[in-house]
């Protein structure tokens, strides 16, 4: 019994050989996450980039990363995380869950991927307002993960 078949459309399962249902794109790897501010830059003690991980299947990309950082001056504007591995679909907002956050001063529980870009903005709990980092110099943490649509 045939369970899978490679065709010019990609990997097809069972007897379905329709190109629309084939697994035509799979990739996994790492990306470099960096923190930034929309106006004046923050002051970071130590590293300013962190390794994130991704799995991309078709036009969907799942990412996750864990950031540990000490900030002594939070700059100004809104905090963002840059360096997502693929440009998001232009016109589509995607949410990213934040599972552990002591970095932002507004208790972010989620964020959004900016359409047509490789940037994620953490947002305040129960709100749509972006966040700023704690700037007390203590080591802080932000863990995030989620899936977004690529272009």
Could you walk me through the main structural features you see in this protein, from its secondary elements to its overall organization?
0% of the residues lie in helices and 54% in strands. The chain has 151 residues and is mainly β. The strands form two sheets. It has an eight-stranded antiparallel β-barrel.
What is the structure about, briefly put?
The protein is mainly beta and 151 residues long. Helices cover 0% and strands 54% of the residues.
Topology of this structure?
Elements lengths: L3 E4 L2 E4 L12 E12 L5 E3 L3 E9 L2 E14 L5 E4 L11 E8 L6 E6 L5 E6 L14 E11 L2
Antiparallel strand pairs: 1-2, 3-5, 3-7, 4-6, 5-6, 6-11, 7-10, 8-9, 8-11, 9-10
Helical segment count: 0
Strand composition percent: over 45%
Count of strand segments: 11
What order do the SSEs take from the amino end to the carboxyl end, as H and E? Answer: EEEEEEEEEEE
Structural class: mainly beta
Which strand order do you get reading across the main beta sheet? 3-5-6-11-8-9-10-7
Let me know the largest β-sheet: 8 strands, antiparallel, barrel
Average pLDDT taken over every residue: 89
Shape: elongated
Helix content: under 10%
State the end-to-end CA separation. 37 Å
């Amino acid at each position: 019994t045939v369970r899978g078949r490679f065709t010019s459309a990609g990997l097809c399962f069972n007897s379905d050989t329709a190109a629309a249902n084939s697994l035509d794109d799979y990739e996994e790897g790492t990306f470099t996450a960096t923190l930034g501010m929309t106006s004046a830059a923050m002051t970071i003690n130590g590293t300013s980039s962190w390794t994130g991980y991704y799995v991309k299947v078709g036009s969907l990309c799942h990412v996750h990363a864990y950031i540990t950082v000490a900030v002594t001056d939070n700059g100004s504007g809104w905090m963002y995380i840059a360096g997502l591995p693929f440009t998001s679909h232009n016109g589509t907002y995607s949410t990213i869950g934040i599972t552990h956050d002591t970095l932002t001063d507004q208790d972010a529980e989620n964020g959004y991927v900016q359409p047509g870009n490789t940037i994620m903005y953490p947002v305040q709990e129960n709100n749509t307002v972006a966040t700023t980092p704690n700037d007390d110099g203590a080591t802080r943490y932000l863990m995030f993960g989620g899936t977004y649509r690529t272009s």
